[in-house]
């Protein structure tokens, strides 16, 4: 289930980024398709593989923090390149808006499934 959820999250994130970047915040030279964003966002997630080092006692926090920052920077660069932006700040905006929307959707799904506070 975790693998399926991760793949679905990747697709949804790329789709949101595509819509926000090409419809809401495009620049004049912006030309992209969903496949391009799927590839670049998938590649920008690859630093997350170092999280496997989190099994080392005492390193979990720093490994996860470092991987998260690396992935965030890679995501902004990927969005900037895929959407042909000249402005890095616009790519940061697209990522931030997409993250907020995705978090709201996740919160809604978890709420509907009985998550967040129910004891097992």
What is the topology?
Blueprint: H1 2-24, H2 34-44, H3 60-82, H4 88-112
Helix pairs in contact: 1-2, 1-4, 2-3, 3-4
Describe the structure.
- The structure is a single chain.
- The chain is 68% helix and 0% strand.
- The chain is mainly alpha-helical.
- It has one domain (2-112).
- The radius of gyration is 16 Å and the shape is globular.
Task: Write a brief structural summary.
By secondary structure, the chain is an all-alpha fold.
Tell me the number of strands: 0
Domain module count: 1
Distance between the termini: 19 Å
Stretches where pLDDT is under 50 for at least 5 consecutive residues are none
Proportion of residues in extended strands: under 5%
The largest sheet is:
none
Written as H for each helix and E for each strand, in order along the chain, the element string is HHHH
Helix fraction, binned, reads 55-70%
Structural class designation: mainly alpha
The averaged pLDDT comes out at 89
Spatial shape: globular
Radius of gyration: 16 Å
Instruction: Output the number of helix runs.
Output: 4
List descriptors.
0% strand, 120 residues, single chain, 4 helices, mainly alpha
């Amino acid at each position: 289930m975790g693998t399926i959820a991760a793949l679905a999250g990747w697709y949804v994130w790329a789709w949101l980024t595509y819509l926000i970047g090409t419809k809401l915040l495009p620049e004049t030279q912006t030309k992209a398709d969903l496949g391009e964003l799927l590839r670049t966002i998938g590649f920008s997630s690859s630093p997350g593989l170092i999280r496997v080092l989190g099994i080392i006692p005492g390193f979990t926090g720093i490994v996860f923090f470092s991987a998260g920052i690396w992935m965030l920077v890679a995501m902004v660069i990927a969005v900037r390149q895929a959407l042909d932006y000249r402005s890095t700040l616009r790519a940061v905006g697209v990522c931030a808006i997409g993250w907020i929307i995705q978090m709201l959707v996740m919160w809604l799904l978890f709420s509907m499934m009985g998550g967040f506070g129910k004891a097992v």
